[in-house]
Amino acid sequence: MRVATRLLCLAMLLSALVACGSSAATPPTAAPPAPTAPPAPTAPPTALPTPLSIQAAEARGPLFVPYGDGPVVPRGAITEWDGTFTDPGAVLYHDGAFHMFRNGFRGWPATVQVGYVTSPDGYTWTKQGAQPVLTTKEVAYAGIAMLASSALVQDDGTWVLYFYTWESAKPPVTGGIGRATAAAPTGPWRPDPALVLTHGPAGAWDENQVLAPHVLRTDQGYLMYYSGIDRSGAQMIGMARSNDGVSWTKYDDPATTDARFAQSDPVLQPGPADAWDGRFVHQPRVAQTADGWVMIYRGVPKLGTNKMALGAATSTDGVHWVRSPQNPLLTPKAVPKAEAFWFTSMVYHEGTYFLFWEVDMKHQTNIYLATFQGRF
Question: In which domain, by residue range, is 316 found?
Answer without folding.
Answer: 3-21+52-367
